[in-house]
Queue: 2 jobs
Job 1
Amino acid sequence: MGFKKYLARKTGVYLITFLFAVTLNWLRPRLMPGNPIEAMLSSNLGLAPGEKEVLMKYYSQLYGLDKPLWEQFVNFWVSLFHGNLGYSILYKAPVTDLIKHALPYDVVILLPAIALSWLVGNWLGAIAGKNKRYDRYTMPLFYFLASMPYFWFAMLLVYFVGVRAGWLPYQGAYAPDLIPSFSGDFIASFLKHWILPFLSLFIVMIGSWAIGMRNMIIYELEADYVRYLEALGGSEKLLTKHAYRNAILPQVTGLALQLGLMVAGAIATEIVFNYPGIGILIMNAALSQDYFLLQGAFLMVVISVLAANFIIDLIYAFIDPRVRTSYTEG
Amino acid sequence: MSSLLDVRNLKIYYKTPVGYVKAVDNVSFKVEKGEVFGVAGESGCGKSTLVHSLILRKPPMVHMGGQAVFKGRDLMQLSKEEERRIKYTELSIIPQYAMNALNPTKKIKDIVWDIAREHGYEDRNEVEKLLRERLAMVKLSEKVADMYPVELSGGMRQRATMVVSTLMNPDLLIADEVTSALDVTTQRVVLELLNYFMEQDIVKSIIFVTHDLALLDKIADRFMVMYAGKVVEMGPTEELINEPSHPYTTMLVESLPKIGVRYRETKLKGIPGYPISLLNPPKGCRFYTRCPYAMEHCPKVEPSLVEIEEGHVVACHLYGGESNE
C-alpha cells in the first residue's frame, strides 16, 4: 500500500506550495503603492524639510528597505529560518511578539465556535436530512443563518444584548481597568467579554454546516449501498450509521480548512467587539503598509492553512479508502 | 404441497399527484421449491415493481390488494420488524446495481457483520469464516473479505455482492435485472454462479427478472411474461420459447437476434409502438394498441388467463377467456 510514496509526493507538493505562497506574501505589500516610512513619519508633525530626509534614510536603513528587492528577499528567508519575522513599523515591536499576544484571543473564540458549530450543525443537518417535516421548518432558518453576515449578527447582539439589555459587556476582551493575569477577577471578566463574540460566530456558522450535512445525508441515504442494506433487512439505525459515516467525510475537510484559517482571526467580529485578535492586527497593518507585520501575519495564515490541508490529506487516507486507492494506484 | 411463494391477485400501485399508476395489476403466480422462475417484459412493464414489492415496499409504492404468501406468511401483512427479520435469512435479493451495492468505505467483512448481527448472529468469527469460504467458492480470494469494495474490479464486486446476498442461505433469491448492465462474459459468470448456488442448495429457489428472453432460456424452469402491469403468458420455458402463444410473447421471441442473419439483409424485428400509460389503463386488453391480431372486442373486454396446456396459461382472446373483471 504505497503509503510512503503517497506521503513523499504530498510533502513535495506542499513544500512547493509553501515556497510560492510565502514569496507572494512577501512581494504583495511591496507592490502596494506608497511607502510605509513616509506614512509613519507623516504622523510626526513639525519636522523641518531636511530632518524628514534624514529620518527617512535612517528608517529605511533600519528596516533594510534601502537594499535592492532581491537582497531584501534573501534577508527575508534568512531571518525567517531564524524565527525572526521582523519589526513592526506601526506598533514598533517585534512581529512575533505581536502575533503571540493576539493569537490566543482568536483561538479562544474561534476554536470553540468552529468546533461546536460543526458538531451542532452536523447533528441538526443530519436530522433535517432524514426527517422531511422537520426539514421544512429548519431549512429556511439554516439558510437565513448561513447568509447572514457575521458583522451584522454581531451588531444585533451588541445592540440588543449589550446596549439595550445591558446583560453582557461588548467591548474588548476584558474590562479596561484590568491587566491580563490568572487572577479570578480577570478570568471572570474575560469570560463575560467572551460570550457575545463567541455566540456571534457560533450561531452563524451552524447554518452552513447544517446545510452541508443535510444535503450530504439526503444524497447518501439515496445511494445504492443504503438501498441494498435496507433490502437485506438492515435496521434504520444501521442505514443511518452507514450513510452518516460517508456524509461526514466532506464535512471533515470543511472543518480542517476552517481551523486552518483560524489564525487569520475574524476581522469583522474583532472590529465590532473591539477584540484584540489577529484580525485587527492585519487590518491595521494593511492600512499603514506595515510590510513586516503584514507578511508575518499572512505567513502564519499560509502555514496553518497548509498544515491543516496536509493533515486532512493524511487523515483522509485513513478514513476514506477511496482516496487511498486512487492515490496509491495512480 | 404448498408453494414456496404464492402470489394471488397482487396489486401494487404508485401514488402520484394525478392518481394511481397501476404498475402491478392483479398478478398471480407461484414459485415452487427448487425452481428458477423467470419474469420477463420490457421496461416499465411492472416486473421490477413486482419483485421489489416483495422485499422493499415503500412509498410511493402502495399495496392495493392481493396476497403474497411466502412460507405460510403473507408478506403484505407483516409488521416492519417481522419483514426485516425474514429478509436476508429467508428472502434475499441481488439488486440490479450489484456492482455498487456495497458501501465503498466499509470492508466487506464489516458490511456483512453489520447485517448479520441485526439478524441475530452472535459469533463474528463464524460469519467471517463462512464469508471466506463462500468467496473462495466463487473463485475470489479469501482476502477480499478484508478489502474495501473500491479495491475490487467491477466483476469482482458483482461476485462479492452475490456472495453477500446469499450468505445466509435464503429460501428465495430475487435476481433483479442482474445481468442487464454486464458484458456477456460477466453475464455468463453470473448465470453460472446462480446455477451453482442452486446446485449447492445455498438457495432453494430464484426469481430471475430480466428483459432478455435468451437468458431465461438458459436458466429458468418456468417464466411469465408481463405487459403493462399484467401477466400475459406463463408456462414452462421450452414451451414459451419454442411455441409462444400470446402475440406479445411471439413478437418478443421473434425480436431476438439470430446468428447468421445479417442486419443488412433482414432487419431485426421489433414491436412497433410504445406501452400504454398505466395511469388510466383501458378496460380491455392492454396490448391492443400494438397487437397485429387485434379484434373488435379486444379493447372492450379484458382477456383472462386461460390454461391452454397443463401449466401454460395465456391471456388473449385468440385463446378464449371472455370473462371480464
Note: Chain A has 14 helices and no strands.
Job 2
Amino acid sequence: MNPYIVLGLLLAVVLAVGAWQQKKKALLFEVSWGHQVRKTLTSKGFLLQLAGFITFVLLWELTVKTLSLPWFSRLPGPWECLMEWLSPDPDYGISIYTQDYYTHIIYSTYRATTAFVLATALGVPLGLLMGWSRKFYDYSFPLVELIRPIPPLAWVPLAILVLPGDEPAVIFVTFLVAFFVTALNTLLGVESIDESYFRAARCLGASKRRLLFDVVLPGAMPFIFTGLQISMGAAWFSLVAGEMIAAQYGLGFLIWDSYSLIQYPVIVIGMVTLGIIGWVSSAVVRSIGRKLMAWRERELYGNA
Amino acid sequence: MNTAQTDTTAPADGAKGPVCRASDGALSIRNAGKIYDPEGVHVEALKDCSLEIEAGEFVAIVGPSGCGKSTLLNALAGFDGITSGEILLDGEPLATPELDPRPGPDRVVVFQHGALFPWKTVLENVTYGPVVQGIMSQEQANKRAQEMLSRVGLNDIETSYPGQLSSGMQRRVEIIRALINNPRVLLLDEPFRAMDTVTKSASHQYLLELYSATGKTIFFITHDLEEAIFLADKVLVMTTRPGYIKKTLQVKLPRPRQYSMLASEEFLAMKAQLVEAVHEEAVKAFEAGEREMA
C-alpha cells in the first residue's frame, strides 16, 4: 500500500474522531454535522493546534536537515521517520506493516494496563482509608511519604531479586509510581469533601460505614479521576524506563535496542507511538470518569 | 403559635412508625456551657445558656458573629457536646457533659451553604434519610418524596442534580429532605444567608408554608433581624462570647405572616428593640476582637 494513502486514512480518522466529539454539542445547538465540522476546521483553536504541530515539524526539519546543526546532524529528519514508519518494507524492520511493531505495542500496553489496574485497585482503597480514618492515616502516611520519593528505577534491582522473572519486575516498577499517585490523590479527594456532607449524612441517619460509600467515595471521585489520569501517564513513563533495563519486548526495549543498533528512525517511531498510546489511554480514563460523574457534567453544561 | 397540624409528614403506607408525634419537639436548654480547649486556649463559647422552646414553636436566634449560636446548634444537632448544663428534648437528655454527641434524624440540620449531595439526584437526596435508616424501602420513599415534592411544586426536578438548581430551589429540596424524616426539630443554620433579596423573600414564603403545614419545632439561626421577626414566634438575642440569651422577644404578629407587616409600626418597634440589643453585643464583640489582635 502506498504510504500516502495510509497518511490520508490517518488524517481521515483524526477528523472523524474530532467530528464525533463535537456531536454532542452539535445536537445541543441543533446544527448540522457538516456545519460543525466546518466550524471545527476553521475555528481558531483548531488552527492554532495545527500551527503548533507544523511549527514543531518545521523546527525539527530545519535543525536536523536544512541547517544540519552540529549536535543535531546525527538525528533522523521528520520525513525520513514518517516514511520508515509507513513503509511496507522498512529498512530497519519496524513499521506499521510489521508484526514486530505490534508485538512491542501489545507487550507495553499489557504491562502498563496491568500495573495501572493493580495501582487503582490498591491505591484507591488505601487513599480512602487514610482519608476516612485518622488512626489509619497516622499509621500509614509517614511510611508512604518516605517510600514515595524513591525513584522507580531504584527499585529495579530489588524487584529482580525478589520477583520471579523479568516480567513481574517490570510491572512492579511500573505499578509503584502509579500506585502512590492514585493513593495520594484519593486522600486529597477525601480531604477536599466539605464537612457539611458528613454532618448531613449523619443527621439523616447514616452509619459510619455508610459514610464511606455514600459520602467519601462519591465525594472524592473527581480527585480520584484526576489522579488516575496522572497515574496512567506515570505508569507509561516508569514502564519505558523499566523496559529499557529488564525486558525483551516492549516500546522501551525497542527504543533502547534501536539506539544500540544505530537505527535512529526506529527510536522516533517508538517515541511517537508512546505519545499516541499515552494520549489515547488518558482519553479513555477521562471518558470513563465523565460517565461515572454525570452529576458534574450536568452541573457544568446544564440540562440538555 | 401555629397549631394547624395537617399531618403531611406521616410516613407512607407500610412504613414503620414516625420518629415524631404531633406533640413532640419541646427543647429545654438548661445552663448549657461549652468551653473549647479547657487546658489550652480556653475559649468559653457558651455560659449558663438557658432557654425553653415549646413543641411546634418557631424560634429565631440572633447575635453577632462568633457568639455561641453555632456552638448551640452543634450541641442540639449532636455534632459536638457541651461541657456543663443539660439539653433536654421532650424531657429526655439530648446533651449533657457525660453524653457522647450523636446526630440523628429526629433533629435534622439544614446547612448555611447547603449540603445536598451533589452526586445524587433530587429524588435520591430526598429519599436518602428514610432509606438509610431502613424505615422505608426505596419504592416507598420514592412515592413519599414525590408526594412531598409535588406539594411544594418541585415535582419536575426529581431527576436533576442539585448543581442544576437555583439556590432557592436547592434550599427547598434540602428542607424537604429534612422533613421527610418527620423530625421533632428542624435546625436551620442561616439557610438563606447567601441569597439575593427576591430569592430570600420567596424562600421565606415557602418556609412559612411548610411550617404551617407541618407544625414542626423550628430552631432558626440568622443575622438578619427582619427575617427573624418576620418568621418566628420568638426571637432570642445571644450575647457575644461567652454566649447566653440576653433578650427574648415575643412576636405577636398574627399568622399567616404578610409582607405588608414588614412596614407596620409594631414590626418596626420590635426591630428597633432588637437593633439596640444586637448592636451593643456587636460593639462588645468588635472590641473583644481588637483586644485579641493587640
Note: Chain A has two domains: 3-75, 99-301.
